[in-house]
Amino acid sequence: MNRVILCFCLGILTCFTGNSQTSNIPPKFSLGILGVVSWGGEHSSALSSKIPLGLDLARVKNVYAGTAYSLALNDDGTVVGWGSMDIIKAIPKELSCVTSLDLNYKFVIAVLGSGEVIAWGELPEGLAEFLNSLQNVKMVDYSVVPDRCLILFNDGTLKMWGKQIPPDLKLPNNIKEVKSITSGYNYNVALKDDGTVAAWGRSAYVPMDFPKGLNNVIAVSATRHHVIALLENGKILEWGENKGVFGPQHPANLDNMILIQAGPGISHDIGLLRSA
User: Fold this and answer.
1) CB 44 within 8 A of CB 5
2) Does residue 189 belong to any structural domain of this protein?
3) Number of domains in the chain
């Protein structure tokens, strides 16, 4: 059954300044009364009741969906979590200066303003050593099928780590001017500076020929069964197969979004909702 949980914590979101690393909120959506929205998956209703009462949405710059847990990234680079996973308790006490996060089943990857990468939880063999070797990083996205990690650097270049990367997932030579990255099962997606989306790989659930006329995209997030894209007008576009525990596609009344994130596997999705 498809669920949508509207959990409103009232607050005015102030404008952020700086480059794309300092804020994930598009400038035209920088003001408004916001709510945390969660839909799909068996954990969404339980997670909604665990959102911290002290979560100050005036400070939230992004929200992320994990498996039975969620994280909010504040404008000062600190992280707030809620849910039932032990990984919430494992958040480093002095964690700060975080610019982006990647949530997985048993671990979290955080990129710092310095371009360095840290992680906590139960990481796959060899991943911690690889992450510790990285510098000048903007985003990291890990996918369990196959065991790989896609990295976007501040200069716009891409790199992939993995033990056995199939030919379909090799980095294309023609993808330039990348703004953000996201990974699903056996496929990758890149959001470009011009608002278009590029994808490569092969998926049994998500067609690589994306919807025609897909442009003006400000955020995109991929997972096992589906991809969700947020357009400049605040509407969500979704494609792929959303069956089983995840349920149907996002509710039709979510048409004023600021940010979206798809959870790993068949977990819930999460976003920030702006007042009309």
Assistant:
1) yes
2) yes
3) 1
Which residue in 144, 145, 149, 146 sits closest to 131, CA to CA?
149
User: Does residue 48 sit within a domain?
Assistant: no
pLDDT digits (tens, 9 = 90+) for 106-121: 899 999 999 999 999 9
Q: What is the DSSP pairing of strand 217-222 with strand 197-201?
A: unpaired
CATH code of residue 137: 2.130.10.30
Model confidence pLDDT, tens digit, residues 244-258:
444 445 666 667 777
Domain boundaries, position 239: 4-40+55-274
Q: How confident is residue 67, by pLDDT bands cut at 50, 70 and 90?
A: confident
Amino acid (one-letter) located at 145: V
Sequence-ordered strand ranges (E) for the chain: 4-12, 33-39, 60-65, 69-74, 79-83, 98-103, 107-112, 117-121, 137-143, 148-153, 158-162, 178-184, 187-192, 197-201, 217-222, 226-231, 236-240, 257-262, 269-274
**Beta carbons within 10 angstroms of residue 268's beta carbon:** 30
Is 47 a member of any domain? no
pTM of the model: 0.80
